[in-house]
């Protein structure tokens, strides 16, 4: 089992889109995939068509529900859904000793090939739980001017977690999203990032594609909603790169 956190403390960079569609690409290839929604906005749960779930990831983490009670099985992927109430659970998680290990404990011994965790846009205890449970973290950024502002914070948090809590965690890669390699400006950003030896950049980028925005409204992955789209093609190429890591 390989566990990936999709994380960035900056909002709206493509974490949820990447969790959903990279997960769907892996499932498409026949792997058994679990997605985890760790964000109180519930965007991933909504994108997977989860409604009226009785239990959620916050309850699982504090031990008020079991893995089986919380899990929702979909046709192609399983999901541990979130809830608007997750923030109050985050507060409770903070009060407990060793609270950073709760998610790792829940995933131990589970029978999945890939687990992808959609993190909230913050670096609080939920993101710490995700990183402690992960082998890799992926950081989607938008290829605009200040895209890498904030990268230091995630990299520093991970360095601390690697040292103290989870020696296995490593950067899978920085993923350029809404990116257009044809523009000079994008090429400049790409060159600048690839020259930085502290970071690892995925060779594959995700281009701007309105289908990626639309598919979530129909509770579908890009492979179901628009299999011929740029988005589907880009996420499949990314999937190949992730599999070769
Ligand atoms: N490559 C893309 N092309 C077009 N639209 C995109 C692309 N990637 C993401 N989007 C859209 O941009 C918005 C933000 O993306 P997303 O929700 O994945 O970001 P996020 O990092 O999860 O945000 P948050 O920090 O709020 O959780 C969404 O409306 C999504 O549909
Ligand atoms: Mg999100």
From TrEMBL:
Domain AAA: 1-170
InterPro entries assigned: AAA_dom (IPR025669), DNA_Partitioning_ATPase (IPR050678), P-loop_NTPase (IPR027417)
Source species of the chain: Arcicella aquatica
Pfam families referenced in this protein's UniProt entry, alphabetically: AAA_31 (PF13614)
Protein's name in the database: ParA family protein
Origin superkingdom: Bacteria
SUPFAM superfamilies listed in its UniProt record: P-loop containing nucleoside triphosphate hydrolases
């Amino acid at each position: 089992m390989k566990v990936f956190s999709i994380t960035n403390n900056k909002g709206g960079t493509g974490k949820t889109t990447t969790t959903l569609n990279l997960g769907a690409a892996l499932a498409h290839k026949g792997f058994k995939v679990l997605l985890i929604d760790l964000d109180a906005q519930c965007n991933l749960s909504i994108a997977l068509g989860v409604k009226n779930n009785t239990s959620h990831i916050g309850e699982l983490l504090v031990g008020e529900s079991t893995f089986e009670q919380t899990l929702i099985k979909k046709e192609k992927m399983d999901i541990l859904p979130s809830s608007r109430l997750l923030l109050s659970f985050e507060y409770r998680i903070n009060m407990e000793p060793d609270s950073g290990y709760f998610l790792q404990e829940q995933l131990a011994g589970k029978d999945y090939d890939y687990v992808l965790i959609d993190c909230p846009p913050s670096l609080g205890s939920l993101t710490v739980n995700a990183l402690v449970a992960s082998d890799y973290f992926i950081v989607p950024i938008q290829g605009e001017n200040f895209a890498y502002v904030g990268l230091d914070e995630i990299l520093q948090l991970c360095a601390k977690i690697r040292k103290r809590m989870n020696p296995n965690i490593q950067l899978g890669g920085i993923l350029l999203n809404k990116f257009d390699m044809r523009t000079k400006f994008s090429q400049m950003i790409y060159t600048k990032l690839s020259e930085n030896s502290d970071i690892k950049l995925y060779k594959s980028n995700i281009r701007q594609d309105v289908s990626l925005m639309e598919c979530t409204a129909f509770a579908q992955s890009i492979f179901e909603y628009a299999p011929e789209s740029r988005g589907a093609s880009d996420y499949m190429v990314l999937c190949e790169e992730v599999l070769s890591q």
